Amino acid sequence: MRIVLHIGRHKTGTTAIQAWFADRYEELLRSRKVLYPRAGRSQEDRDELRNLHHGLILPILDGDQERSAELLGELREEIERTRPEVILLSSEVLSRETLTRDDFHRLRSLLPSLPTQIVVYLRRQDDVLTSRYAERVKRGYVAWPATIADVEADVCLDYLKALEPASDVYGRENLVVRSYDLERDNIVAGFLAACGLDVPGATGDEYRRNVRPAWSTIELLRLANGLPSPVRARTIRLVRRVGRIARSTPLARWLDRPIPLKPAERDRIIRACESSNREVEKLYFGGREVFPRAPFRRQD
């Protein structure tokens, strides 16, 4: 029996992977002896937490011993009942920039006797930044006059540094680091390969739900987020409605401008991460080039 711990990162296909496994709970147990535990996942159909294990992980990280003990008891009962060969847990909170070695030591106490493999996806930093910016605007967390620069200040784009806490606690040999950019067209199949699981025909195409609105819509939402309530709520609904209509018109490509990162800003980010990226490629990709070199220019 072994544990596979999927720790993200954010904006690397985690929604598709989690939904694919959650929807195949019984099938994977029966055919592959893979347990995607219900312990720590919401059992409400419409709850966005029903596909992931935040509920199991957060009490451990927060030091909530009573809740942790309760959920760990449920997890152990589920394991005892199903007798799996592989236990898969998935939660992007484990890629938070604020996590330390102590957090991963607490996490390791989850099931300390079982060998654990950590799977993490990395995405080129300029795309991560624009994607997280769009997500935060959509959720109302970024409002005018805040810009993408404010999001950049909160996101760790140094992947060598970001991987250190997990690597130090679990051992670098137990980290499986994958490139989202190379596998994004078939992220579920790539993830299964990373876990050493053979499930023919797995694609996860049906779970591609996180479709970004046009950049012009994102900009209008950012402005609307800064309006006083209740004008804000009405304006946001209007912007979203118009944006959905515009996506199906010949204007869609034209409206997907301006991109929030100009070419010079993309180059700056790639150049700042270059040394870290080369070391990550050396340690986890056998020296294979998976990140762009600066200067970089791309026509979006």
Structure, described:
The radius of gyration is 20 Å and the shape is globular. It is of the alpha/beta class and 300 residues long. Strands 2-3-1-4-5 form a five-stranded parallel sheet, with helices on both faces. It has two domains: 2-125 and 158-207, Rossmann fold; 215-255, no CATH class. The mean pLDDT is 90. The chain contains 14 helices and five strands.
Q: What's the layout of helices and strands?
A:
Blueprint: E1 2-6, H1 14-22, H2 25-32, E2 34-35, H3 54-62, H4 65-82, E3 86-90, H5 101-108, E4 116-122, H6 125-138, H7 148-152, H8 159-170, E5 175-179, H9 180-183, H10 187-195, H11 215-225, H12 231-247, H13 252-255, H14 263-284
Parallel strand pairs: 1-3, 1-4, 2-3, 4-5
Measured distance between first and last alpha carbons: 45 Å
What's the total count of β strands? 5
Which secondary-structure class do the elements indicate? alpha/beta
CA-based shape: globular
Domains (count): 2
For this entry, what is the oligomeric state of its chains? Answer: single chain
The averaged pLDDT comes out at 90
Q: Which regions contain 5 or more consecutive residues with pLDDT less than 50? A: none
- The CATH architecture name of the largest domain reads 3-Layer(aba) Sandwich
The portion of residues assigned to helices is: 40-55%
- SS element count, helices: 14
- What fold name stands as the CATH topology of the largest domain? Rossmann fold
Query: Describe the biggest sheet?
Result: 5 strands, parallel
Strand content: 5-15%
As laid out across the biggest beta sheet, the strand order is 2-3-1-4-5
